Amino acid sequence: MRVRAIMGSDLETTPARSYDVPTMPLPSITWQDVQQMPDDGNRYEAIEGDLYMTPAPTTLHQRVSKRLQYALDRILERPGLGEVFVAPYGVEFPATGEGVQPDIVFVSRERCEIIAEAGIVGAPDLVVEILSPSTAGRDRTIKLRLYERHGVREYWIVDTEENAIDVWRFGEEPECERFSATFPVRIGTEQVGVINLRAVFAPS
Q1: pLDDT given at position 22
Q2: Does 15 sit behind a cis peptide bond, omega within 30 degrees of 0 on the bond before it?
Q3: pLDDT tens across 10-24, in order?
Q4: Among candidates 120, 66, 130, 56, which has minimal Cα distance to 89?
Q5: β-bridge pairing 164-169 and 175-179
Q6: By the number of CB atoms within 10 A of the CB, which of 21, 86, 106, 133 ranks highest?
Q7: Sorting pLDDT into bands at 50, 70 and 90, what band is 26?
Q8: Sign of the CA dihedral 62, 68, 73, 77?
Q9: Residue 39's pLDDT is what?
Q10: Collapsing DSSP states into helix, strand and coil, what is residue 199?
């Protein structure tokens, strides 16, 4: 999603040239570019030089997000294990100029130095993305690779159609588990709480 504008004055002063449009390099989009975009109710992200847009969430998305946020606040934030943040909130990976706005993120107390005024700068301990028809493919592929590449420790993909959560834990040998009933929440190998997913995915 890129638009390149040519002003009228340029057309008047620049000699006509022949362009091979399909092979012309496009500028790489960075998180800093995203910060300059107007607020139109959508979320924009910069991944691997490309710009991605996420439309405003549905009611189901908001319900599931709110319930997960409440559960994580109870299990992780209130006991003082770290901080939970929800969208719209930026996560920047400065080494590559990439940046995203996940649905929910958690940063442990030990890594609180990555929390800045403008958002998180670095890899959170936990990232949660709630699937929607327009973002499911991206969340399961492009963002999965992004989070693994930048050292996110755990990535939850929340499937509201299957009423399940796929949990990716990254390390030397990444592993994925699917949960649809009782969901153990861990920090590293230590279980710190349990989430009732039937309550999270309840229709109302």
Answers
A1: 52
A2: no
A3: 333 344 444 454 555
A4: 120
A5: antiparallel
A6: 106
A7: low
A8: negative
A9: 84
A10: helix
Distance, CA of 140 to CA of 131 (rounded, Å): 9
127 with 146: CB under 8 angstroms? no
* pTM for this prediction: 0.85
108-160 tens-digit pLDDT: 999 999 999 999 999 999 999 999 988 999 999 999 999 999 999 999 999 99
Query: What proportions of the chain, in percent to the nearest 5, are helix, strand and coil?
Result: 25, 30, 40
pLDDT 10s digits, 174-183:
899 999 999 9
List C-alpha distances in Å: 109 to 59, 79, 93, 120, 168.
32, 11, 19, 13, 21
| Residue ranges of domains in the chain | 55-200
Q: Name beta bridge partners: 183.
A: 195
